[in-house]
Amino acid sequence: MTKAIRFSSCGGPEVLELVDVEVGAPAEGQVRLRHTAIGVNFIDTYHRSGLYPLPLPSGIGLEAAGIVEAVGPGVSELSAGDRVAYVSRPPAAYCDGRLAPAEHLVRLPDGIDDETAAAMMLKGLTAWYLLRRSYRVQAGDSVLLYAAAGGVGLIAAQWARHLGARVIGVVSTPEKAALAKAHGCADIIMADEDIAARTRELTGGEGVAAAYDSVGRDTFKASLDALRPHGVMVTFGNASGPVEPFSPLELAGRGSLYVTRPTLFDFINTRKGLLEACAELFAVVEGGQVSIEVKQRYALADAAQAHRDLEARRTTGSTILLP
Ligand code: NDP
Prior knowledge:
Elements lengths: L1 E6 L9 E5 L8 E11 L1 H8 L8 E2 L3 E9 L11 E5 L9 E5 L3 E3 L6 H21 L7 E4 L5 H12 L3 E6 L2 H9 L2 E6 L4 H8 L5 E6 L6 H7 E9 L13 H4 L5 E3 L10 H16 L7 E6 L3 H9 L6 E5 L1
Parallel strand pairs: 9-10, 9-12, 10-11, 12-13, 13-14, 15-16
Antiparallel strand pairs: 1-2, 1-4, 3-5, 3-7, 3-16, 5-6, 6-8
Helix pairs in contact: 2-3, 2-8, 5-6
The structure holds NADPH dihydro-nicotinamide-adenine-dinucleotide phosphate.
The site of NADPH dihydro-nicotinamide-adenine-dinucleotide phosphate (NDP) has 30 residues, from helix 1, helix 2, helix 3 and helix 9.
């Protein structure tokens, strides 16, 4: 038996319940894992609220680190005792232990401890595809990054600076501003300022090469207005709600802009792609160019409180649950 968080109706954090579940033996291609740390992500709140609908009842959580306890038939790359981490669907990571597909697991290098791994797999791979695939950052670019003191934000800011970009971060409090500046942001715009006007001021009127916008509804237009001609709008989250429908003419009127609405799983949907992305992420973390900041730790049983704090903008950096 293991403890797991489940929910059987969508709603606020109170729908999350701690229950006992049977784990069983690993089937073909599976391993049985004992979790050591579990990542909390904003997407978990979309699953819980129903913004991203799931069949119910459902587990929740997409990333964790742990130890392989047993391997099923046909699993040759892993054995009992291996230290691993993963990003995996369907959501089921908020638990003490589970069965998981071996093809989703990545063996951890000695230089990356379990808490760091649980804090960075989903957020770090997101930062990787944002900066290396959605809009490939060039040295000398100015880029706009929302929630710059958040989980994805702190990682992306450091990584973008390492790639030679000037990062303009958007945050909501002076404490978050200081943290974002200490982790890669050259300039800060406060969330209640005129973001487009301030971005133009900071870039000598030109605008930024890319806007990495995870806030969604409230900031979409400001992000378009902050771009240089041919700039790339990467709208990748809905912290304030989903973006409203818009006319493509909005892009023509602002200098032939590009818009993309990416999602992580499309960039790691082959084993080769996953391992290449992890190799790049592990290299910048082990090399010290990107430090992973675990700023909140909760017991697994307190997952609902973790959601409350994340949604109320009370967190910074990464949040993990401890089994
Ligand atoms: P964060 O740690 O960044 O937490 C969310 C932050 O968003 C808050 O701290 C807050 O920062 C900011 N925010 C702005 N407006 C609001 C609002 N109305 N309500 C709540 N928060 C707000 O979370 P994550 O690092 O887990 O995720 C960051 C974003 O990236 C999320 O929107 C998430 O959905 C998205 N994402 C998308 C992925 C994809 O592949 N498409 C993958 C991973 C994440 P501040 O107070 O400084 O404004």
